[in-house]
Amino acid sequence: MTWVAAGRRRTLAVRSLFAVRSLFVVRLPIPVRSPIPVRSLLAGLVAAVMVAVVAGCGQSGGSGSGTPGAGTPGAASASRSGAVSTPAATPPTTARSTPGATASGLPDGAGGETAVPAKTSGALDQTDLPVATDLGPGWRTYVDPGDPEQGYAGNGAYVRARRPGDIVASVVPLGCAGLATPPVLPRPQHALEATFRGPGEAPGVALALEFDSPAASAGFLGGMARIARSCPAPAARVGAQDPPVVVVTPVRADATTVLDRRQELGYGAAPWLWSEAIVRSGRRVGLLIVASGRGVRPDLGALAEQVRSPLAE
Question: For the segment 270-283, what is each residue's pLDDT rounded down to a tens digit?
């Protein structure tokens, strides 16, 4: 989280998670192939993602079970639906900006084609998300202009409300060898995404999610941990023309934190290594996914702290 890209969003795999939009997504991922696809880091909605969407939409933020997990890669936002916001995979979504469009917190089913994302979501605002300069040298905020073809509008800011249902869809990566049945993730009540750019225009996406109970946030983290454990490298070599595969290497998974690294292999694979941190605090979960050249490995513990510090209610 793709914490993957909203592209919706973007292929997280971080979009908009992230991924980035495509992180976490957030659109990254939530590992984004180009503005997300980072938002969702979702590249081509496959049956696995559709299963997760249908299952997730049937929930209203109830608690889940399992142990913690991870996001997805993307390239412009950071989430491929295969992973945090924000950084290319991205779930399907929202809105073309048109004259007279009004700002919206983007609850599921609201806004339609004219919804311009709000800069807050419930009690969440930009102070609940990481600060760009704390991500490392060369990182800055990035204002995603939106993409009508991917079905989402920009709002002139680097932070934007996300539809809770999109989050549930966009953090589930495509191409995981061991993820035959995606976990059913509790749906957050509120979701806010931030998009970043780093050295070499590397995408990054962060998501702040608020659930209706600590049990629900724990269930979400548990599902993300399961995802992280379910995407090992294939036994056979994956060639440049082979079907795309997402490989997730778990680094830590406990009751409050999931850390992992992701990369894409096969046809259309983004050139990035994705580093993802997912942190839980009470009813909230924060996701951050950042891209880097394959020879660069950001400190995952430091990334986790950048998520944890602003997250407390």
Answer: 999 999 999 999 99
